[in-house]
Amino acid sequence: MNEGKPIQNAPPREILEKIFRTAYKIRVFETEGIKLYRQGLIRGYFHPYLGQEGIAAGVCAALKDGDFIASTHRGHGHCIAWGASVRKMVAELLQKETGYCKGYGGSMHIADISTGNLGANGIVGAGTPLGVGAALASQVRGSDAVTVTFSTDGASNNGTFLESLNLAAIWNLNFILVIENNGYAVSTRIDESTRDTDLYKRGLAIGVESHQVDGNDPVEVHRVTMQAVKTCRAGKGPVLIEAKTYRHMGHHVNDPGKYMPEDELAHYKARDPVDRARAALKEMAGFSDAEIGAIEAEAAAEFADAVEFSVKSPEVTAESFAAFAQGY
């Protein structure tokens, strides 16, 4: 480590490092994953988290072992931020038996109940009631565990959004609902689907503590989440956080995103969350370029190792699937 002096009142050095490591690892996973998709190694849909890395990194750095998360269809970043094995994730995307779901789930359904990852979900908004259920279970057990559900602007118009959040409010659950508002539900702009585009106000309407945060500022996301976690563990949950962000491309890999205005995209790319996490690590924790380069090299090597592992892993077969299905 270098001798740079941390900025006063900044998050702890180890937190800043964790946030950057996570954000950069997600960036590598998505960027290189797109290449695997283009090579025909990944089948089905692939929804990159590019441009939104600061949200997962900032939120999950505020949680602890024993907490829970529930994800969305754009869930790779959440899994990585929660500490998932990159090897098992890539194997799942390549439909290999060594994947998290033995290759049956694919990109949109990675889950690991053993670590409190309730899973990504291909159904819009379905993670919210799952998260509330987990938070209720924790309350019944007398645990102070916090459950975070990552949701979307599109899912905020789903009936389960307010129904679930209202239940969490009635029962004062340790539940944090994070809306990743990237401005689009597939190709539908948010101002075409709702009159008031400040979605955090929906929580205020039912008496839920609610905040709006710059989702491209991972340090600020972490600060707000830390306070939300403190509120929940004090028995005063739930909390709603709307993180304003923007994806760097279309809804999925094969969506060219022509409906996204070039100036709007440029605006958000100039506020890239990975760049801001890197800058925070240098300015707030005194990391050198060499130290940051080592972190980046480590992430690249980890993904390369995961690809090698996954390519060599056995593929899902009709026989293995039949044997699996007999258990249900």
Describe it for me?
- With 328 residues, the protein is α/β, with parallel strands linked by helices.
- The chain has one domain (19-310): Rossmann fold, CATH 3.40.50.970.
- The chain contains 12 helices and 7 strands.
- The protein has helices spanning 13-38, 53-60, 76-81, 86-93, 127-141, 159-170, 201-204, 218-233, 262-269, 273-285, 289-312, 318-325, and strands spanning 68-70, 147-152, 175-181, 184-185, 188-189, 209-214, 239-244.
- It has a 5-stranded parallel sheet with strand order 1-2-3-7-6, sandwiched between helices. A two-stranded antiparallel sheet has the order 4-5.
- β4 and β5 (188-189) form a beta hairpin.
- The longest helix is centred in the N-terminal third of the chain and has 26 residues, at 13-38.
- The protein is globular.
Question: Keywords, please?
Answer:
5-stranded parallel β-sheet, two-stranded antiparallel sheet, alpha/beta, disordered N terminus, single chain, 10% strand, 328 residues, Rossmann fold, 12 helices
Percentage of residues in strands: 5-15%
What is the CATH superfamily label? Thiamin diphosphate (ThDP)-binding fold, Pyr/PP domains
Q: Mean of the pLDDT scores? A: 95
Distance between the termini: 52 Å
Overall spatial form:
globular
Low-confidence stretches: 1-6
Structural class designation: alpha/beta
Q: What's the domain count?
A: 1
**Alpha plus pi helix count:** 12
CATH architecture: 3-Layer(aba) Sandwich
Largest sheet: 5 strands, parallel
Radius of gyration: 19 Å
Q: H/E element string?
A: HHEHHHEHEEEHEHEHHHH
CATH class: Alpha Beta
